[in-house]
Batch of 3 targets.
Target 1
Amino acid sequence: MITGLGKSARKATVAVALAMLALTQLAPAHAQSRIKDIADFEGVRDNMLVGYGLVVGLNGTGDDLGDADFTRQSLVAMLERLGINVRDQIEDLESDNIAAVMVTSTLPPFSRQGARIDVSISAIGTAKSLQGGTLLVTPMVGADGEVYAVAQGNLAVGGFSAGGAAETIVKGVPTSARIANGGIVEREIDFNLNSMQDMSVVLRNPDFTTARRVSEAINAYLGEVAARPSDPGTVRLNIPDRYNQNVVALLTDIEQLRVEPDQIARVVIDENTGTIVMGENVRINRVAIAQGNLTIRVTESQQVSQPSPFSQTGTTQTVDRTNVEVDEDQDNQLGIMDGGVSLQELVNGLNSLGVGPRDMITILQAIKTSGALQAEIEVM
């Protein structure tokens, strides 16, 4: 009796081990990413803030009030708010220790009143440097025109400028600065996440296949059909009853699920720098490639022509000599690439022809024109 139970237990253990092994074998071998890294959730987003302010305390590197009327007007308005009337002397105001700036920041999602955020400051006038300046109280508004934060503080400038009459040295950008934790949130954005009955999962790189894989991964985890792709960039998610008033727990579980993002075959080209980026799915049909350039080099030199020794005639003269060289790259040969080659084979084939990045751009565009490149070319 005891022996029989032991055999049953061993058989059950072996069956579980085989099942786990089968699941491991069926798992895709390609690189997978968390949903958290490829998608955003509806309502969980940043908001841009902007404001206009004044920086004071500059050591003679501020705006020229004669050229920057907006700085002069801002200075007058600020002094009047502080109870100082300078309207009658507005034309006599002269100071190069103040600068008009734009203040920008990002309001993180679910920021509460009193929370601090980083702000960036950029000069908009004729200021040469913001080094040593202090930003005065600056309201920061959102896209709806409402004030969501207020910024103030001492500036941290990453660059500097120094020079004299004959030479000037500039490192970095001295007209831009930051204030760490320089903004205080004054208004919250109302958004009740836990009360939502459905929401959208928005893919950062829209794709039909990726959207379906995300929905399948979510449904497999929840054990019900709660997610459906509505378009290549959106997956609609109905909140299950067991997560009612606890959407945060649902999103915490979902964002850790792993899926394999799909991507189209694409070649990205930056002609300004000669940079080429190709995806792993880039394929080409059988094609022959020849690459060569005609180079003509003309060299001018001068030689001195002198008469024979002890000669009574002739004078010493300078004679121009011209040397012309023509290089037709006759050593370059026609290369053949078989159809369906991988990205590595394509790169190796082009490198074997001695093709540089600039010429490779032209070759890839020519292959695309011939219809042999099965990928999309995007020129930046």
Target 2
Amino acid sequence: MTRSIRWRLVAAGAFAIAVALALSGMGLAVLFERHVERVAVADLQARALALAAMVQPNGDAGASLRAPPDDPLYDQPFSGHYWQVMLGDELRRSRSLWDYTLPTAQAPPPGESAVRALAGPQGEPLLAVEQGLLVGQGRGAVPLRIIVASDRDELALARRGFLGDLLPYLGLLGAALLLASWLQITVGLEPLQQVGARVAALGSGARPRIGQDLPTEVIPLATEIDKLLDARDRELDRARHRAANLAHGFKTPLQALLGDAARLSGRGEAEIARSVEAIANQMRRHVDRELARARIQSGRARQSAEPGTITAKLVGVLRRTPQGAGIDWQIAIPPGLYARIDPDDLTEALGALLENAMRHAGRSVHVSARAQGGRVLIAIRDDGPGVPEADLQRLTQRGLSLDPDGEGQGIGLAVVADIVDAAHGELRLANAQPGFLAELHLDAAPPVAPGAPPSPFPKYS
């Protein structure tokens, strides 16, 4: 999972969302607390001004404090709501303070208020507002200090209630954001999946190249892969040409060596001639095999071939030979069946198998093909004597020929195996009892579009 880009992005997104929601929750809690405190201060200021009505002017005798207004909130001892009024030296307290006097500091200027943090009668923290006023005028004016306070635990309780209501919504928001992040990542990584699908199509031969019709960000990757494929094809072509040139270069010296062996035999050097001829024939088999391998178009597996058409052409050629004219050729291949292989390669492989079946058949050769689970199965069966079970596993070895007449060079089935392997297929050989059965298992290909130019078939004779 640690190597998955998707899960790494999801994990990073989930971490970022969690941090953002945590910071948002903390910020909202702070803002809510400040807002509640401002509301509480405004309420305390209003209550302080209401308590100013306790002042009773007495003319030249100054002023005095009358009885406070009835308010059950301030009558219960230690209720958490308190007030204290000081007019000059006269002090009045709410019943809730019992015998406790709120601590005082420097009084605010007359007409102004100050927010203070005080200790309550039981040591609890209080939010207090002190209002400064002046009763009377001139020298006879008397200072008035009004303190109204409430327990801060009520603010903390409101804050906890707000967070309790907020957390479920933050959880739902986090889940929605995580889902949106997953969808965003899925959409963002879709081009990479598209590139992966096209690379898989390259392997199966469904596409020649990845192409440029992709999102801008992945075009450089697709371009580099296509360049590598072009370089690989060029290198394969060069290697195939070098192998063909080398094999052709050996053919003339080998032919001359066989001629020298014939002259040695004419001079009575039969043993030396046979040794030279055996070595030359073995080398010629190697050369013929390399020539056949050089013709395999492994870089063109994206092409498709129709087994029915190719088989009909090859059987038509074999019927014109003396041995093929006496064979009953039975072909059962439905039209419209295509295999993912180069037509030239399929012609080479079927030609070798059909010629092999013709040489060993008694009276008939049966050729069939069918689609099976995304593959095309081509079967060639003759009614000949078959092959000893001990030799079945060795038939595709180069240089092995089981032809009793000695006409085969032992490279036909080996070349067929190379062709099928290059097309990512499989060659299966078995005794049919009676006869011999050769099966080609190749990937299926879509039918050729109407109007498409037919692939050229090499001449087979």
Target 3
Amino acid sequence: MKLIFNDSTFSFELLRTLSYAPYGGADIGEVLTTGYAIKEGDFESWYNEWLKTAERTLKQAKSFENSGQLLSAGEIYLKASNYYRSAEFFLHGNPDGSRILSTWRKSRESFRKGLSLSQQDVEILEIPYKNTALPAYFYRVDNKPRPTLIIHGGFDSTGEELYFQVVVEALKQGYNCLTFEGPGQGAMIREQHLPFCFEWEKVVEKVVDYLETRSEVIQEKIVLMGISFGGLLAARAASFEHRLAACITDDGLFSFQFSKAFEAHSKGDFDAHFAEQILEELMKKNTNIRWVIENGKFTFGAHSITELFQKTEIYTLKNISEKIQCPTLVCEAEGDMFFKGQPQLLFDSLTSPKTILKFGKQDNAEEHCHMGALTYYNQKIFAWLADTLKP
């Protein structure tokens, strides 16, 4: 699927921003107009044009707020949050740059302002974790005990983005939601500089502990959902955290080892020094490789490509995923440009009750994490959950 750009990375990220339109995260015209103004393959142009759109949208929100149109203002603040997120997306090649923090904070501030004005029943949380806290949001349908989704992202998503991707639909379907950011994500990497940790079960454990204190949560119906790279992290957590009623991986991921990905691409023996030389050259020509490496170094706290290879070597579910006990849903996108073949590897490794949902071109949902078809994707997910959680 190509949207405005021939460059697959720019096309996908534009589609990603646009995909949140049905859930209040974008307007079609704003996204397309911004896309046409961006110079293809140019990270600076991407930042500048999205920043202009975000700032213009923020002014609109403030104007509505000042005139007393608070509900409309809240909706526009939420859109601005998504546009600021998009603006910040390609900045991670300079992890010390001030624009990362300032732009991301504007995204978070706009989101929280939007929530407050939209009268959403939500609490902003800090869940104790080691010597710090996990930033989180707890969304309620009402005061009644209900099934509850724990949702986290992956390699690059933020806690605020998850609202558009899953939460809005989940609330309509009758589920409470707790979204959080762990090490390597959102505030934890940008403000606290805490990189990804493989023992994700220790993160999820604290979230489940917290939910056990909430009267609005049916304790036997807590579900974990991990998105993108979060599919591997969620499966890892479910392998050890057995209080979960179900686990959803969107999409399924068995391995996130950069060295193995390079071996498969080069079809030769792996040599870290040689790989670094090749990738440095490819980064000058290929936006996807450049972004993956730059964001990988940023989120894993690696100072070189070789160190990134080393830090990701442990990220495999071999001899781990078979420990999952709860029903597990593995999702697969036919046209996934990141994790092709990985969902089947995860599905085959599972010994618990398992389902694989394959989304293809016939569904218009073949892109990574089913961007462009989120309404249909969510409907399929909640149909599976309704069947899985029934008495």
